[in-house]
Write a structure and sequence with these properties.
By secondary structure, the chain is α+β, with helices and mostly antiparallel strands. The protein is built from two helices and five strands; from the N terminus they run βααββββ. α1 runs antiparallel to α2.
């Protein structure tokens, strides 16, 4: 694992799991979560893959979510995960 999660990101992941499980079932929730964590690992290995969002953060899209992260040497810190519909305003 080459990434860390902020407390905010952990809460957001819990919300994503709850929403997905309620609306699409447990199998879909597990699949989405697995893919999301895999996307964290890919960015951890290649932190410059995401688009620059501001001086400290980068951003990329994973399916229905925008993921904001900060490169930290050989790791990344996932700081925010927002539904794409709600990502128009700056974080």
């Amino acid at each position: 694992m080459n990434h860390d999660l902020s407390r905010k990101a952990l809460r957001q992941i819990e919300e994503i799991i709850r929403y997905t499980d309620t609306n699409f079932g447990g199998h879909q929730a597990r699949e989405y979560l697995s893919g999301l964590y895999h996307s964290f690992d890919i960015r951890g290995d290649n932190p410059q893959m995401g688009r620059r969002f501001d001086q400290r953060r980068r951003r990329y899209v994973y399916r229905s979510h925008h993921v904001y992260y900060r490169p930290l040497g050989d790791r990344i810190l996932i700081v925010d995960i927002r539904n794409a519909r709600h990502s128009a305003s700056p974080v």
